[in-house]
Amino acid sequence: RVKNGEATFTLIVDMSVKxxxxxxxxxxxxxxxxxxxxxxxxxxxxxxxxxxxxxxxEPSLGNWIISDWDDLLQGNVWHLKE
Length: 82
Known about the structure:
The protein is mostly beta strands. Helix content is about 0%, strand content about 60%. A hairpin with a 2-residue loop joins strand 1 and strand 2.
């Protein structure tokens, strides 16, 4: 894609992120657990980051965006963000 007379392209990085997660729903009044538990589980999430770059220029490090998370956002790998 040409923008302002210069070729631009989208950098895409897929990263596996290791997390400790817990899931628990409890009754506010009684404290009884309704669903889940307080136990932590090790899980991995696939996160897709995108950044715009121009030919022969270093990409800006602070402009990365999350375009998808575990395929929940159905990220479009061919879409150029503006």
